[in-house]
Design a protein that fits this description.
single chain, 426 residues, alpha+beta, Aminopeptidase, 2 domains, 10-stranded mixed beta sheet, transferase activity
Length: 426
């Protein structure tokens, strides 16, 4: 079943060329609904876009999505669907847009949702946004199918979802070519206003082949302290690293993480991420799923039998993602942050990984460990509609007023950091 309009013809276009082929497709109805109205399909000659509004692990799409995401954990259903279940607001709608070719292969997927807000109207956003601070978001595509997928998605949004007033996609790497091309298509072909919104950088630490080589890269004073720390604490057995390996140890380690994280954040005047019931439920389910898939490393360090540092990391191919941590507030003499971070880095090196990613946030300790900044952005797209443009002007006006108030009231204030990133007491 098809619709009359423009469609991407993958056969008629040379791969790699940025052009569309217009095709007239006869149809009887504009939409076809399948699977108890959980999927809405729009089809053209060589692709079809499906709008999936519900998904469970038993659905074939779940496995297909996992395969398309590959090692990109933050773009997989094991991460994003627990977020959706925990954070879904009343009236919001899951907006998984899948693109399939004529052979019914999944060649692309956009992990989005739609929510109505007073300041943005009907707002399209990425799953995993907000407090969860999901990084490296994108649109998934098969290799060499990027142009077909992006063109199909853009056409679908224009033709089938004209009610959208604002598209705001968070946590995108600034040099992400896929998202850059998507923004270009929306701007040049459909008249959207496109803007890159600055946000905090991620920090990646390139890892050498062995632990001693990495230690030698540190400053002289830090190098001496790290060696002394390991000699006095780990080598003597005073400090012990424990890792979750089953349901019981996962539950034990997760509660240690929550306790240490909340105590630390409360001590510095922040509510802490786990003050949110939604965040707790999201991360707990995500941790369970990633333990089952072998991609979770939840470690905690016990100093003389007492937990003093905990880290929830995700193992993404050659990279260890340092997502959430907590440290004890009553043993600063032992440098619990250093114990946790160096234990995580050493594990990453000795397990053959090449990158330790501290993720988003500009805390100074990240550069002290020789991590390098990775520029991140949020993508802001405004449709060429009266309502969309008026709401954009209202947001801009309120944003300027808020910035001015901050400068007047807190002239030396520093941007608040996300509480989900790693911590250190350096």
């Amino acid at each position: 079943m098809g619709f009359s309009g423009k469609a991407w013809d993958d056969r008629a276009t040379t791969p790699g060329k940025d052009e569309l082929v217009n095709m007239a497709i006869d149809c009887q109805t504009p939409n076809a609904k399948f699977i108890a109205e959980q999927v809405i399909t729009t089809q053209a000659a060589n692709w079809r876009v499906e709008h999936v509004t519900d998904l469970s692990p038993e659905d074939p799409l779940w496995t297909q999505w996992e395969e398309l995401a590959g090692s990109r954990l933050f773009l997989a259903p094991r991460w994003l669907m627990p977020w959706w279940r925990a954070y879904r607001a009343p009236g919001s709608q899951l907006l998984l847009l899948t693109v399939r070719n004529a052979q019914d292969e999944l060649i692309g997927l956009a992990p989005w949702f739609l929510q109505r807000t007073w300041l943005s109207g009907n707002k399209l956003q990425s799953l995993g946004c907000g407090l969860a601070c999901t990084d490296y978001m994108s649109i998934l595509t098969q290799p060499h199918k990027e142009e077909a997928v992006l063109s199909a998605l853009a056409e679908y949004l224009k033709q089938r979802m004209p009610q959208i007033d604002h598209i705001y996609l968070e946590g995108i790497e600034a040099d992400n070519l896929t998202m850059g091309r998507f923004a270009q298509i929306m701007a040049t072909q459909y008249g959207y206003q496109s803007r890159d919104v600055e946000c905090l950088d991620c920090f990646r630490l390139p890892l050498p082949a062995d632990w001693e080589t990495w230690v030698m890269q540190l400053s002289r004073s830090r190098r001496r302290r790290v060696r002394q720390l390991w000699r006095d604490q780990f080598d003597t057995g005073k400090a012990v690293i424990k890792v979750a390996h089953d349901e019981n140890t996962l539950a034990e380690g997760f509660e240690i993480l929550v306790d240490l994280h909340q105590r630390r954040q409360n001590a510095i005047g922040h509510p802490g991420s786990f003050a949110s019931k939604a965040f707790y439920e999201f991360l707990w389910e995500a941790a369970q799923r990633h333990l089952a898939s072998g991609q979770l490393r939840l470690q905690w360090v016990e100093l003389e039998g007492k937990p003093v540092a905990a880290q929830l990391d995700l193992q993404e191919g050659d990279t260890l993602l340092d997502y959430c941590s907590g440290i004890a507030i009553d043993c600063e003499y032992a440098r619990p942050g250093w114990l946790g971070v160096t234990a995580g880095i050493r594990h990453a090196i000795e397990s053959g990984r090449t990158t330790f990613d501290f993720l988003r946030g500009d805390e100074s300790y990240k550069s002290h460990w020789r991590a390098e900044p990775v520029k991140m952005i949020h993508l802001d797209l405004v449709p060429p509609t009266f309502k969309g443009r008026m709401l954009a002007r209202l947001r801009a006006t309120l944003g300027h007023a808020k910035a001015l108030a901050k400068r007047l009231l807190r002239p030396t204030a520093k941007p608040e950091q996300s509480a989900t990133n790693g911590e250190d007491d350096s």
